[in-house]
């Protein structure tokens, strides 16, 4: 069936339906209901036409039919930063521009260099105790900042961002950044401010009309300055790691990357981890804590699992593998409330999707938020049931309907580290507190991650 006869809509749909960019989730639900499983969205100012796919079987077919270098639509602003503004740095060494906003042979070559280290057996597990120390520091921090009602403050999400940055700094840069104690003007505070600025700007630059392509807007200038700061701080830590490689025999992830692929690869890999690994992980954790605080029965079942494994001793490597319900709880949150509501590809060859001939170069969006909340793919999809991930023979489940880390060759390179961080912080929070929520339910919105809209005020009762 020819591509041109696919039903399509334009940006006006957002306004006619009373939606804003922050409510793309509701737009996608409406698209699926009104137009079916394959919808072309056209007329997006400054953006290419997009094909939205709401069929998990078609998603599986596209993923399994990919070639060796899948093309994922990337942030145009970051692409411009890497390949135009700072091309002297990212292009100075062959195949050294990273994995984000990079495609083809250059992407494949860089990923191969990094994956040998990042995806090796035990790469993440070796950080269990250190990441646990960061989680302990976070718990001490939230104990101090609870209000008179023992509730987390209105800016709790910002505190979770600090935890995520501290954890990732430990993994990517092999250092404690001191995010919970940072003072004005310190290097760690500069990095915190830069990362915050990056995430505040990227949503506006990517989801709204891209005026920055015509002239450097004030927000785009702030965005570039933030990226420059992140890059410069990252480079300083890579240089230190390079020196320490010569001085001692102990090895960290960063040192292994420097040794295996060189300082430039290590620096760019660390930069990419900062750009995609902080906001995603922190929002997933905040969302999980919020959902658990509303479900005391789930929380207590999880607490029993955790205490049964730990038996009063500190967490050590291998413990999380004995906590299947912990993993299931996080999977269930990410099914219902995925921090990235859709995954994408730019087709590298002509492809038949839902019976239509879709030409090479088309940008397709796999809408996992809609599929993950559909009874077609999950039994009682609107109900929060972590058990569905433990007993898949009882619960209907399509493996390609919910893919929080993507799939295939472009699956998240830092998945093991992100999961380690999330498992440990949720484990420690549940072990330390009984969490309750006594306010109006929070709606979710895209900002730019899919996250609860409003202050997450959780009552923390010491166990």
Automatic annotation (TrEMBL):
UniProt cross-references to Pfam families, sorted A to Z: p450
Positions that bind heme: 412
CDD domains per UniProt: CYP24A1-like (cd11054)
Oxidoreductase among keywords: yes
Cofactor: heme
Family under the similarity heading: Belongs to the cytochrome P450 family.
Name of the protein in question: Cytochrome P450 49a1
Annotated organism of origin: Euphydryas editha
């Amino acid at each position: 069936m020819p591509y041109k006869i696919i039903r399509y809509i334009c940006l006006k749909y957002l306004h006619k339906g009373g939606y804003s960019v922050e409510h793309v989730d509701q737009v996608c639900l409406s698209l699926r209901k009104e137009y079916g499983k394959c919808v072309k969205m056209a007329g997006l100012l400054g953006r290419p036409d997009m094909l939205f796919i709401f069929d998990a079987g078609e998603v599986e077919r596209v993923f399994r039919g990919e070639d060796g270098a899948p093309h994922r639509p990337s942030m145009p602003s970051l692409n411009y930063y890497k390949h135009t503004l700072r091309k002297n740095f990212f292009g100075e060494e062959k195949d050294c521009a990273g994995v984000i906003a990079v495609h083809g042979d250059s992407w494949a070559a860089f990923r191969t260099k990094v994956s040998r280290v990042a995806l090796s057996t035990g790469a993440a597990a070796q950080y269990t105790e250190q990441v646990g120390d960061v989680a302990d520091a976070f718990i001490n921090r939230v104990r101090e900042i609870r209000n008179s009602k023992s509730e987390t403050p209105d800016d709790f999400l910002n505190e979770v961002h600090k935890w995520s940055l501290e954890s990732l700094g430990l993994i990517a840069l092999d250092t404690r950044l001191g995010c919970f104690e940072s003072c004005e003007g310190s290097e760690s505070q500069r990095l915190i401010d830069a990362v915050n600025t990056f995430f505040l700007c990227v949503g506006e630059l990517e989801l709204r009309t891209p005026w920055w392509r015509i002239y450097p807007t004030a927000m785009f200038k702030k965005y570039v300055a933030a990226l420059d700061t992140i890059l410069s701080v990252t480079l300083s830590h890579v240089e230190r790691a390079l020196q320490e490689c010569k001085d001692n025999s102990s090895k960290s992830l960063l040192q292994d990357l420097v040794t295996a692929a060189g300082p430039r690869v290590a620096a760019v890999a660390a930069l990419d981890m900062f750009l995609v690994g902080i906001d995603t992980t922190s929002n997933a954790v905040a969302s999980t804590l919020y959902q658990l605080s509303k479900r005391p029965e789930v929380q207590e079942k999880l607490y029993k699992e955790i205490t049964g494994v730990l038996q009063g001793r500190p967490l050590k490597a291998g413990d999380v593998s004995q906590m299947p319900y912990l993993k299931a709880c996080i999977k269930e949150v990410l099914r219902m409330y995925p921090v990235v509501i859709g995954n994408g590809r730019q087709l590298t060859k002509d492809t038949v999707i839902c019976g239509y001939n879709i030409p090479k170069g088309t940008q397709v969006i796999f809408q996992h938020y809609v599929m993950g909340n559909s009874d077609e793919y999950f039994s009682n999809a609107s109900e929060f049931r972590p058990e569905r991930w433990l007993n898949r023979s009882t619960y209907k489940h399509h493996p390609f309907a919910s893919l929080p880390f993507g799939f295939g060759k472009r699956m998240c390179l830092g998945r093991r580290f992100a999961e380690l961080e999330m498992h440990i912080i949720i484990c420690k929070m549940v072990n330390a507190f009984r969490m309750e929520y006594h306010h109006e339910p929070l709606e979710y919105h895209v900002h730019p991650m899919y996250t609860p809209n409003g202050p997450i005020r959780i009552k923390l009762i010491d166990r």
